[in-house]
Amino acid sequence: MAGKLSGKNIAIVGGGFTGLTAAYKMSQLGARVTIFEAGNVLGGLAAGCTILDAPVEKAYHFLYKTDKHMIRLLEELGLRDKLTYYKSSVSTYYGNQFYPMMNPMDLIKFLPLKFHNRIRAGLVVLYLQNVKNWRKLAKISAMEWLTKFAGKQVTDVIWEPLLRGKFDIYFDKVTMAWLWGRIKQRVDSRDKKAKGEVLGYIDGGFATIIKELIKKIEETGLAKFELNTPINMIKHYSKNDTVKVTVNNKDLTFDGVLLTVSCKVAEKILQNFKNSNASYFQKLESIKYLDAAILLFATDKPITKYYWHNINAPNSPFVVFLSLTSLIGCDRFKGKHIYYIGDYILSDHPHMNISKEDLEENWFKSLQKMFPDFDPTSVLEKKVYRFKDAQHIVDVGFEDKIPEYQTPCPEVYLCNFSQIYPMDRGTNYAVRDGFRMAELFEKRYG
Ligand SMILES: Cc1cc2nc3c(=O)[nH]c(=O)nc-3n(C[C@H](O)[C@H](O)[C@H](O)COP(=O)(O)OP(=O)(O)OC[C@H]3O[C@@H](n4cnc5c(N)ncnc54)[C@H](O)[C@@H]3O)c2cc1C
Fold first, then answer.
1. Residue 102 and which of 203, 257, 264, 412 are 20 to 30 A apart at CA?
2. What CATH number did the domain enclosing 51 receive?
3. For position 309, which CATH number holds?
4. Is 403 in the pocket of ligand 1 (CB under 6 A)?
């Protein structure tokens, strides 16, 4: 295929949405692309799997109405008609009870808060929706800002459990700018007609997009996928503008390399260049990550009518419980019901290491306390997935830590979700960054 990158030999490290989108665009531009993926499947954190023989994601995934980069990709791939928006429903578990949490009226009826605090909680969200200049929120932690403006009770009951759930021990370090971005995304995904938030889901799951990307990349005849092939080191850069990458003890030469792995992994891959730019490595080292543990399961009878359940209970062994079929219906699962339990944790947390059976037992016991009619022995199928470096800590001053795309090794670029700020990372931004990297490579090598 002739194009501006014709004849260029590019390595892409990581086969998630960033790597796949970049590979799709670069191969369209004529580059010879090799995608190195450490795992045995493509898709990264958004990779697909099956339950009751139907395709879903290993970890719960949906799209917002405002996910314009993903919508552009779907249009290019001829998949726009596979995206449907569904009315979402959210509830909060507090004090052994679930409370609907979908609109201002639900907040007014939220009895755990004193009446004046319900009003205060609503006014704070309303204020944040209208903030245009998020930069002033970047200098203060979400906990500090919320305690000051929403008050202690609102922070204790609503916000602290959510921040702890997403950021574990780092909950009090997270910048208010990140929380603003998260609230904005959800508010912007409201739909007047649906009278609430709508969330998008792809027919056949996100695997539909991943499969089509792979197909389009393969059709160029210019790409190679190397699964189960972790890259451990960039060996060196030579003066004739090529980079040597060590793969299974063999040295391969490329014109350019795109790393789409976490900063933790990039730090190891780039170790030979540590002395050439210490401040870049300080940035990589300063970004902390949490892992994620997920339980996906199916039942005959419904457990809940809500899609999303925030678990605001101290000592709960998980932070979120989700009913996919409450959002998209049961038709594609032969009338059965599909759920996820999820938690973000430190990499040495027992849930990253205990047996699958022990994790299931522990989480099902807690779920049964919340839903006494739920019977774990009636579960039709269950699967456990664990992800490394699933969420980075977006702390106060984070903007100064963001590493540049150009790494200390010439011709090697880094693009990962730590560079998305202040909005929450997601497949929409991974697609945007994949497009962006193709443009950058086109300028550099075209
Ligand atoms: C629990 C959970 C829920 C989420 N929910 C949503 C959602 O609802 N909507 C949404 O849009 N997004 C959601 N996300 C976020 C979304 O999945 C990510 O933002 C997106 O998939 C990131 O894509 P990526 O390609 O940048 O990174 P990744 O998906 O992390 O891809 C990086 C790839 O690099 C590979 N790799 C690592 N080390 C090496 C190595 N040494 N050599 C070669 N390959 C390597 C990894 O195996 C991985 O495949 C969720 C994430 C999680 C964990």
1. 203
2. 3.50.50.60
3. 3.90.660.10
4. no
